[in-house]
Write a structure and sequence with these properties.
The complex is a heterodimer of chains A (398) and B (331). Chain A has 398 residues and is an all-alpha fold. Chain A has 2 domains: 1-40 and 62-71, no CATH class; 75-373, ABC transporter involved in vitamin B12 uptake, BtuC, CATH 1.10.3470. Chain A has 16 helices and 2 strands. Chain A has helices at 66-70, 73-91, 98-112, 115-123, 131-147, 152-176, 182-201, 211-218, 226-244, 246-256, 258-263, 268-294, 305-315, 327-346, 351-381, 387-397, and strands at residues 220-221, 224-225. In chain A, a hairpin with a 2-residue loop joins strand 1 and strand 2. Chain B is mostly helical and 331 residues long. Chain B has one domain (53-294). The chains are: A mainly alpha (398), B mainly alpha (331). At the A-B interface, helix 7, helix 13 and helix 15 of A face helix 6, helix 12 and helix 14 of B.
């Protein structure tokens, strides 16, 4: 086993061998190795515990590898996005008109606001289908409280509060009763929240918002719709949160193996409650935008949003079994579905056909990773049916 | 003798509890509504109303037992109802049984597609059926071209399926009864039905003991599809209208009925009688709330609350059961 000093390294072509890319201080010291019994998949040369922080190697921070980089799901999405735009712009001369595109986004973007919180929830393997009802409830309460004389800014704060409470209720139930599936709990709160909204407002609508309120939905900032600017800011924040904070990393850990994550000190209950609370807050933000665009609120608003949002997240490469996916993929996927709807609508494709197309897109997107695994397994099964290698490669994919 | 009863109660604690809740509601509502609830006519109406729900709940139960779920039920109902009535409006003289057969076949095909996606392509059930929900719903609009199939497109014989009676019972109730009995026999006496439980309990150990787990899953989805087709055509027949939005969101009712009936969403457990009782409970609630003069705007919220409370109660019961059996083992 003690082959470290003489051998240039494990023979397999450097898929996971980060050797040449290691920062300087690592290089001169191959002598400090303790008998390195680690598996060839993780050639971390230093013992780890004593090394200063800067030198310590993070095992799941995979070195840059062009082949893997370009085989990522996100590139497929980029290609798809380009294809959608190319085809659409060939089909209709009005497609690439700036103002048209901006209008389409303005109409569509309140769903996009919901994708990142939903992505975080799906990352830990849960799901929230009560978002649309949360939107309805917080929107309705905002409208009613404003009609009852509350100043608009306070009414908006109230909406945010209601959203946060709705989400927290979901999270608390799920954290208290771990046996319950998120799908079922949020299914029943979905019925309850919209039910409460319709108790409050029955079949009426509440409106009469002040003039400035409509600028939230219809106004522009730096030549872009306010809602789009907000979405970009949100994207930046969520890239930071999901990919660059311990909180974000803990989501992946929980999604990959909740038990192991718990043993390594992640408070899964707190994470769960916070995730659903964030989801609720963003649902109420989306409700504010929607109410501003519509000029009124009613209990039936935003019906069916949850499905579109989940579709975007899944198309973006987030595995619904948890632990996999990147913000950028979801970001692109949102625009793919948005542009698809916009372009097909522009050339008068009937909306049922669009429905069928989006359904097929979702199924194909969800089956591609499985097909890839299936083919890989079949190819690998002939020479060496070793289960351990299968596990390591599939984990490195994530 | 009393030991037998105790044993029976312990084994069927969920079903007995559901039945007790149903009885409590019935007594309460009957007292509050001044005897308007327990009239033969109202009872018959109530069961007619919940017949479709009961039929589809049987299929959904099988799918949930295999740890799956199907969100495309409402869309399958709309699609099968639309296709079958479109055929009917072109050939008015066709026998109603043929129309129902067409609807069941459409549902079977749709369910098989769902099952293939889940079992053989390995897509998560919730995602696969979310996608097919869009597809089937879109196809419904495309088949109809946006128009509705109304009473004038349906023959009298066909309409009579929902209204007519046999042996003093409404046809729909009879159909539901047949489906429940068949499902009970299937799940308890037939090998294929027992395999559904085995796969839901542990797919890998089922596979090791020689069960073709994928095929069993496919079968469960196909059965659910066929039953949804049946439910869809009955729905269309009852309301004398098939349109693009038929039965929108019906899947949530069906899932709620299963959950109320004690079918564990984590798979592997759930009884036919329990699921049927769950559907009846939901149907009774739908019927009782208006009788109590509760505003229709309250009904949704109350229904959701009941589902939530019942799933939490379910978890608490099952936790207690496991705890007690562990304690017994320790002694």
């Amino acid at each position: 086993m003690n082959d470290a000093p003489k051998n240039p390294g494990p023979k397999n072509p450097g898929l996971k061998n980060p050797g040449p890319k290691n920062p300087g201080p690592m290089k001169p010291g191959p002598t400090n190795q303790a008998p390195n019994n680690q598996a060839p998949t993780s050639p971390a040369p230093n013992g780890g515990s004593q090394a200063p922080l800067a030198q310590r190697q993070i095992l799941d921070a995979v070195a840059f590898d062009p082949k893997r980089f370009f085989l990522r799901w996100e590139w497929l999405l980029v290609v798809l996005l380009l294809a959608v735009n190319l085809i659409n712009s060939n089909l209709s001369p009005n497609y690439l008109v700036w103002s048209n595109i901006m209008d389409a986004i303005r109409i569509y973007a309140d769903k996009m606001i919901l994708i990142f919180p939903m992505m975080m929830i799906i990352l830990i393997g849960d799901i929230d289908i009560s978002v649309a009802s949360t939107m309805a409830l917080s929107g309705v309460l905002m409208g009613v409280s404003h009609a009852a004389g509350l100043p608009m800014p306070l009414a908006m704060v109230l909406a945010l509060l209601v959203g946060a409470i709705c989400g927290t209720i979901n999270g608390l139930i799920l954290a208290k009763y771990q046996e319950l599936a998120a799908m079922i709990v949020t299914l029943s709160t979905m019925i309850i929240y919209r039910g409460v909204a319709s108790v409050i407002l029955e079949d009426r609508a509440a409106g009469a918002f002040p003039d400035w309120f409509s600028h939230i939905g219809w106004g522009s900032l730096f030549g872009l719709p306010v809602i789009l600017v907000f979405f970009f800011l949100e994207t930046a924040v969520f890239i930071w949160v999901i990919h660059y904070t311990a909180y974000g990393r803990s989501l992946y850990a929980l999604g990959n193996n909740a038990e192991a994550a718990r043993y390594s000190g992640i408070d899964s209950k707190r994470v769960k409650v916070s995730l659903f609370a964030i989801m609720g807050v963003f649902a109420s933000i989306a409700a504010i935008f929607l109410a501003s665009k519509m000029g009124s609120v009613r209990p039936s608003m935003a019906k069916g949003y949850e499905l579109d949002v989940i579709a975007m997240v899944v198309l973006g490469g987030v595995s619904t079994s948890g632990g996999q996916g990147r913000v950028i993929g979801v970001f692109i996927a949102a625009f793919i579905i948005g542009f698809l709807r916009y372009g097909l609508g522009l050339i008068n494709v009937p909306s049922p056909t669009i429905l069928v197309l989006i359904g097929c897109l979702l199924i194909v997107a969800a089956s591609i990773p499985n097909l890839k695994n299936l083919l890989a397994r079949r190819a690998k099964a002939v020479p060496q049916p070793s289960p351990s290698t299968k596990v390591t490669t599939s984990q490195a994919d994530g | 003798m009393s030991n037998d009863i105790k044993h029976f109660l312990r084994r069927n604690v969920r079903e007995v509890a559901t039945l007790a809740i149903i009885l409590a509601i019935v007594v309460f509502v009957n007292a509050r509504s001044g005897g308007a609830f327990l009239t033969p006519r109202n009872i018959s109406d109530m069961f007619t109303e919940s017949a479709i729900l009961i039929i589809i709940t049987m299929g959904m139960m099988m799918v949930i037992i295999t740890t799956g779920i199907d969100l495309s039920i409402g869309a399958i109902m709309a699609l099968s109802g639309m296709i079958s009535t479109t055929v009917l409006s072109a050939h008015m003289s066709l026998d109603p049984m043929i129309i129902i057969g067409i609807a069941v076949a459409v549902g079977l095909v749709a369910g098989t597609i769902n099952g293939a996606l889940v079992a053989y392509l390995g897509i998560l059930p919730i995602i696969a059926t979310l996608g097919t929900m869009n597809v089937f719903r879109g196809l419904t609009y495309l088949v109809s071209g946006g128009s509705w199939n109304l009473q004038k497109n349906m023959s009298r014989e066909f309409m009579n399926v929902a209204i007519g009676t046999k042996f003093g019972l409404n046809n729909m109730i009879l159909i539901a009864l047949v489906v429940v009995v068949a499902a009970h026999l299937f799940m308890n006496k037939y090998r294929a039905g027992r395999r559904i439980y085995a796969v839901g309990d542990s797919e890998s150990s089922a596979a090791i003991s020689g069960i073709k787990a994928k095929r069993v899953k496919l079968m469960a989805y196909a059965i659910l599809g066929a039953l949804s087709g049946l439910g869809g055509v009955l729905y269309v027949c009852k309301y004398a209208a098939a349109q693009g939005e038929t039965a929108m969101g019906y899947e949530m009712n069906v899932i709620a009925a299963c959950v109320l009936g004690g079918v564990a969403i984590t798979g592997g457990s759930g009884k036919v009688i329990g699921a049927a009782l769950g559907a009846i409970l939901l149907g009774i609630l739908n019927n009782a709330l208006p009788l109590l003069r509760i505003s229709p705007f309250w009904q949704e919220a109350i229904r959701g609350l009941i589902v939530l409370v019942s799933i939490i109660a379910n978890v608490i019961i099952s936790l207690n059961v496991t705890k007690r059996s562990l304690e017994r083992r320790a002694l």
